[in-house]
Design goal:
2 copies of one chain form a homodimer.
Chain A: H1 19-36, H2 45-52, H3 56-68, E1 72-78, E2 86-91, E3 95-102, E4 106-113, E5 118-125, H4 133-152, E6 157-165, E7 168-170, E8 175-179, E9 184-188, E10 202-206, H5 207-218, E11 226-231, E12 235-241, E13 244-246, H6 277-280, H7 282-288, H8 298-310, H9 314-338, E14 343-347, H10 348-351, H11 353-367, E15 377-379, H12 386-401
Parallel strand pairs in A: 3-6, 6-10, 11-14, 14-15
Antiparallel strand pairs in A: 1-2, 3-4, 4-5, 7-8, 8-9, 11-12, 12-13
The structure holds a DNA duplex.
DNA sequence: AAGCTTTAGTTCATTGCCTGAACTATATGA
DNA sequence: TCATATAGTTCAGGCAATGAACTAAAGCTT
């Protein structure tokens, strides 16, 4: 539940409510209603009143505040058939946030306006394996500045940013707890240096969690409860429940890559034994398929694997088959623990889905019969840049849920 | 997450806020502050003001409402040293709720006043295995009426009730989805018949979830994030995060009994394969220990097992050892999925803890190193009647969180 | 014993916000 | 042109929290 943590805290931990809180809450309600209208359909004040249950008078007043803060703008007229046409409202396209991503072999940044439109995006290849965080962040800051400058002349104001990182993070502390593939342990990131003077600051996300949020926003079926499984070098996951990211008590739930799928299995980089990642991570699959892990870049290895699969090469097929079965075991257990019945496959799991699907469904039927229907096992609808978009989208969403943070 | 669903729903799903909501919210804040004071220490209005951050004036007015509704009462004076003594406030001991439990071989009911004191409690042996729900509920209703009558003369008003059942439930529908050991499938319970005219009605709980809530209330270390594992005929679980029960999108998360701990394992009553319950459920342990499952009642079998363990009988020791290891595997996976780092052992796991602990810790160290410290593996502090007390306590808590439901 | 100090609790004018009704503004259709 | 329908604004009314002033009731001081 993304909810501004109460500042004051008695023994109960809750904050006192005053009349002003009603305003804040309704401000978010109105803005949320405007944001949730389908893109292109700009609601009038009257429609917002209908959607929220507030009176026209209240909505008028609230909308005025949002206009003053520059979060929304009026756009054209909106004929209703008979009667006076309404004035369309939409999230301001001249306010934006910056999405950023650090991954094993690239960094990227994008400017996304409040309506969700990507105004500019740049990716830069860069081997970040076992690189200290300082230079990586410096390179990212430069990339971010470049992307900003490409839209800077259009009078776009960047309000805040989100950074996705492949590892366990503590968002509250802006700390990366562990990122095995970057070689980072307990690294505190100076996020504000990435985006100085942005009123909303920069938030930190786990890569899979950010991708899950992007998936939530772009899902064609509008699913609001699912587990997003991200297959990268590591195997990550993001749990979405009631359209909210479920992060657990310390901010890093959803680590499906380290569910035990084979008690007699091999060692994992996390220190554990028989984790899903030791069977379904990229390196594990490449190795099991007989592709030398140092036989080229990850993308060439993946092409080789796909060729082998299409050729029906037994080792490749068996490697993916095993990954699918073990993924099924992990998802069966996850279904029981968090009561999720819908899975979205991302990263290499999406690419390998044609070969992965059958063993996965078989495994689910064996270990959690009746929990997942096959229509609930789907492929990600956001591509490569899911983490990037999710990080940006989440910052936008947190603004929509607490617009009073902006000057109003 | 126990939270009243918003009644009104626009596209956003949120309800409009008006000034009246502030009153409701602060009413709950004040009542919560009073409830959270240590038993015996009755806070004054001034202390409540300090704890909540509200002004004395507001607290006075809110307290008046709560007094009128009969939820709290004034009790004696509260000397502060210098100055005028405050008037003590406490939850009303003349209002109560009814906790009820249906289990495999007994039914029970208790009257618990709002301060948490058990005023009366009765248990009745009764074999409910494969019994239809009608007669079971009728027997429970009779038991409930009897317990009520024992306190009825003291002018106690019963406001509502909670019923705990060993199976998957949908609390919103008052439906038992499956209760394998009762033989119930998709049974709709007529809960209101148990407690007619109670203003708060009767809520339905999963047994392990209710026990987890009781654990939350009675924990000496005040832990607010933990997994409660209940070893009964089946193996159940309740996840507590931020002092809230985590129930997942459909109300039945925490089913740790059906996490896969052995992909090559045996069939489970749930239809799955290699579930924890097939190794660590009561029947499984008895069988593995060489005790015939029909060699007496469950409690005699348990005594026999304990004797065998104390005598160091190899089969018994190995049975419990195996259960401990597999429990460790399940907890390792759970730690990853929901990010929990603290476990409370309940039911037979509590009884067997001396023999269970070592293999469990070993297993946790192997499969989730660094996730649980040994001090975070503890034994339940509520006994047999945990589910009963938890169901009652949860009803009390939901009243404390929404006192406006009562007439005020 | 009288008075000062300290803390508890109440009263009251003020402010802020939502509401509902009345009103103005702007379109379509007869 | 006028009736009708819908959008949006204005305004009085009500409710809730606030803060300051006030009353209440104790201990401490002299």
């Amino acid at each position: 539940m993304v909810m501004p943590a109460p500042a004051v805290a008695g023994p109960g931990g809750a904050a006192p409510g005053s009349v002003g809180d009603v305003r804040r809450s309704n401000l978010a309600l109105v803005l949320g209603a405007i944001a949730e209208f389908p893109p292109g359909a700009h609601p009038s004040r009257a429609q917002v009143a209908g959607a929220t249950g507030l009176t026209k008078a209240s909505v008028s007043s609230l909308v005025l505040d949002l206009l003053d803060a520059g979060i929304i703008r009026e756009i054209g007229l909106n004929p209703q058939g008979r009667g006076r046409p309404g004035v369309g409202l939409e999230l301001s396209p001249s306010r934006a946030v910056l999405g950023m991503e650090i991954n094993v072999d690239y960094i990227s940044a994008a400017v996304v306006d409040l309506t969700g439109t990507v105004l500019a995006r740049e990716e830069q290849e860069r081997d970040n394996r076992n690189r200290p965080d300082g230079p990586v962040l410096a390179a990212l800051a430069a990339l971010a500045a470049r992307v900003r400058s490409t839209v800077g002349e259009q009078g776009i104001e960047v309000l805040g940013g989100g950074l996705a990182v492949p590892g366990l993070v503590d968002p509250a502390l802006a700390r990366v707890l562990t990122a095995p593939n970057l070689g980072w342990v307990n690294v505190d990131l100076d996020l504000d240096a990435l985006l100085p003077e942005a009123p909303l600051g920069v938030e930190l996300f786990n890569e899979a969690n950010a991708a899950a949020l992007a998936e939530l926003r772009h899902r064609p079926d509008g699913a609001s409860n699912f587990l997003f499984v991200s297959g990268e070098v590591g195997v990550g996951g993001g749990i979405v429940i009631g359209s909210e990211l479920f992060t657990g008590p310390h901010g890093h739930a959803g680590e499906v890559g380290h569910i035990v799928v084979d008690p007699d299995g091999g060692h994992c980089s996390c220190g554990g034994t028989g984790c899903l990642e030791t069977v379904a991570g990229q390196d594990a699959i490449f190795t099991a398929a007989g592709l030398a892990p140092d036989g080229g870049s990850r993308s060439t290895l993946m092409s080789l694997l796909l060729q082998a699969l299409e050729a029906g090469e037994p080792r490749a097929v068996s490697a993916v088959d095993g990954a699918g079965r073990c993924l099924g075991i992990a998802l069966a257990s996850t279904a029981r623990v968090v009561n999720i019945d819908s899975v979205v496959l991302g990263g290499h799991f999406a690419v390998l889905e044609p070969w992965l699907r059958a063993p996965l469904l078989e495994s689910l039927a064996k270990y959690a019969p009746g929990k997942y229907s096959s229509s609930q096992v789907t492929v990600s609808s956001v591509g490569e840049s899911g983490a990037l978009l999710g990080a940006a989208g989440s910052v936008i969403r947190s603004l929509v849920e607490a617009p009073h943070r902006l000057h109003a």
